[in-house]
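Revision sheet: structure tokens.
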Amino acid sequence: MEAVQAEKEDLQRRLAECNEKLRTKGAGGDEVIQEKRTEDALKQANDELEHRVEERTAELVKTNRKLSEKLEVHKRVEQELKLSAEIMENMAEGICLLSASCQFVFTNPRFDEIFGYETGELIGRHTAILNAPGDPPRKRQQPKFCRNWRNLESGRARSTTSARTRRRSGLIPIVRFSSIRSTGP
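Predicted:
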């Protein structure tokens, strides 16, 4: 854009020089014809540059409009994510997200509170940490969270069960687990 502007200014300067020569010299016929041709060529070049500037300006306006629209979408999505995060952090139900290997990826504060853990303490740990003591070894190998979660792999959209679990303090509450199949990545 700056190069086009510089070229335009150069052409305008040269056109002004030619006009000045015509006025001051009182030039002869051949010189006048040559300078007129030069003037016409400069005017044509100037017109072409003006046209290119208009085209590029229109392209920039269009690109700016698209970027503004994308920014608005991004802002809306960001607001929705913040709202979702706030809901998850403040809801009365405990919520967790598990990896395919049955490790905690996310727990909300209520989930941590129910099981007696500090916020984030369960992240990366296997769900077997919450199995009730005295569960047969087979059940300890396949934690309740994962058994319920695996029901979803068989095609169910929702799976619910109740089971004994272990809190950090050793108390054994009976907890109702509801799992849903994610539609996300």
